Request: fold
Amino acid sequence: MNPTMKLFRYHQWANQKYFQHLQELPENVLDKKVESVFSSIREVLVHMIIVDSAWLFGIKGMELETFVQSRDERIKKLTNMSLEELEAAYSEVMEDYEHFLKPINDPHAPHTVSHPYFGTLETSYAELYQHIVNHGTYHRGNMTAMLRQMGHPGPSTDFIFYLYEVNK
Reply:
């Protein structure tokens, strides 16, 4: 498996672990207010879904400005979803990534993305996907800190745990 697909699988696995973990906790955990980067776990999940969607939009070469224009509507829709619906929305985004990434023969080939705020970037699919995975790892860490404030542990989603699980 190419390294970009391995990272994709890890990102998918780690977020799935989080959704499974949250389903085992009391319902109020999703919306309980905490002092953190985000005020609730729900806000973090919505942010992660929106950002993963936006980057896929941009990686595909679509105009990110179009995505930005519909972002508030997407956020509102996601904010009103149950945990199960958020998980389904996330799964849809991951299916879209899978369909897009799978046929890419050389993830290190040059690729250009245009961002409405940051400008044009000459990079590769591999580097962009590394960014997406890093972003997810950062926010899973945010959620773990938030859960600890509420008296709950977070799930173990480090890359090494993924490797142990898939190499059983």
